[in-house]
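Budget justification aside, the reviewers requested a transparent look at the raw inputs and outputs of the sequence design task funded under Objective 1. We therefore reproduce one unedited record. The lines immediately below are the structure tokens for a 270-residue chain.
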């Protein structure tokens, strides 16, 4: 495929994105804080995706394409908060579908090559799905997987900052108002032990939520993602915010082994 997108195009899209986000700031401290949170998250996801794309030695235009997809992956979040006052999809609407709607309404991608436009739009639409549909093209799968890994890498960081009571950070767990009781539900435990990502519906306690976040490792796609999870100690730190129990230890053992087996130079059992 020919050169899909250049750095100049990305710079213009970044200016559009900054202006778009600014238009949601209205001087109300709570709202502006919520909007800034997603803007800053987007910045960090862009940085994460650049690292991942480089680790794969992708051609320059594919790296720029991946960064563009990261820039827009949560573009639906701003309107979601403005409309509903929440980031919980279950209490409002699917923020990925809303993101596609925003792209179709404001058309910032119109200057791009149609193939690049389709890939970015598909990555936005699919970034939060349980699975990427098998019929999608290899290009689409690659960009979407990059966004999904980069997104998770930052959300782990955000969640851990919240669990460690750093002020000012929003987390889904706050809005879910989950009881902080020392219990892991059967369905969540069974899913993670089976190396599957349990559904959010099964989450009944804050502990379940943290266990699900540990289970995100089953959906990671790239060597560097596993390496960063290990190096940053996300799983150990999540365990450190949980109560001590046999279930927590068993889940921790499974997810840590999963990561160790996949990180470059990790311990791969014969
Ligand atoms: Fe995100």
């Amino acid at each position: 495929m020919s050169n899909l997108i250049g750095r100049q195009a990305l710079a213009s899209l970044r200016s559009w994105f900054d202006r778009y986000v600014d238009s949601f700031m209205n001087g109300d401290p709570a709202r502006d804080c919520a909007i800034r949170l997603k803007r800053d998250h987007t910045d960090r996801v862009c940085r994460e995706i650049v690292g991942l794309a480089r680790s794969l030695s992708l051609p320059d235009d594919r790296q720029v394409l991946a960064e563009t997809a990261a820039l827009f992956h949560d573009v639906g979040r701003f309107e979601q908060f403005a409309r509903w006052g929440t980031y919980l999809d279950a209490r409002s609407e699917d923020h990925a579908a809303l993101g596609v709607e925003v792209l179709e309404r404001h058309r910032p991608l119109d200057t791009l090559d149609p193939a690049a436009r389709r890939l970015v739009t598909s990555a936005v639409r699919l970034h939060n799905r349980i699975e990427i549909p098998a019929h999608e093209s290899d290009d689409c799968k690659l960009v979407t997987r990059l966004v999904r890994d980069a997104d998770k890498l930052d959300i782990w960081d955000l969640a851990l900052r919240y669990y460690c009571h750093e002020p000012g950070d929003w987390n889904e767990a706050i809005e879910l108002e989950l009881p902080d009781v020392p219990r892991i539900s059967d369905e969540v435990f069974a899913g993670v032990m089976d190396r599957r990502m349990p559904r959010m519906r099964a989450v009944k306690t804050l502990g379940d939520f943290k266990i699900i976040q540990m289970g995100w490792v089953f959906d990671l796609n790239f060597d560097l993602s596993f390496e960063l999870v290990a190096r940053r100690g996300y799983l150990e730190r999540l365990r450190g915010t949980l109560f001590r129990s046999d279930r927590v230890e068993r889940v921790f053992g499974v997810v840590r082994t999963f990561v160790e087996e996949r990180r470059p130079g990790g311990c791969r059992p014969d």
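The radius of gyration is 19 Å. The domain at 7-151 is CATH 1.10.3210 (Hypothetical protein af1432). Computational costs for records of this kind are itemized in the attached budget.
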